[in-house]
Amino acid sequence: xxxxxxxxxxxxxxxxxxxxxxxxxxxxxxxxxxxxxxxxxxxxxxxxxxxxxxxxxxxxxxxxxxxxxxxxxxxxxxxxxxxxxxxxxxxxxxxxxxxxxxxxxxxxxxxxxxxxxxxxxxxxxxxxxx
Length: 130
Description:
Blueprint: E1 2-4, H1 26-41, H2 47-51, E2 57-60, H3 68-73, E3 90-94, E4 97-106, E5 114-122
Antiparallel strand pairs: 1-5, 2-3, 3-4, 4-5
């Protein structure tokens, strides 16, 4: 199950506890919610230790299945068509699980790098495993 993700920071937007949101990124807001939830439920003694755990994040542009014989014929300049089409959202995968989808963008500060603009967050039901 997916949930549309609309990131427009605004001081008038209420946070989880009714406090106004300040200009924060979606990941910072998620970290704040996790910290508040942990503090309120008392399930985690030290949320900071959990927040420092490194995870592997990947952005999947697409995939392809080809026979080994065709793979061996590939050389410089060969084009392998992927299953995603231009304009379709890319998958954001953390530790092997799809957590979000987004659009590929050029990073403003450095035009030689790409980034991902998140457009939707995948729900917690375990759907979308890679």
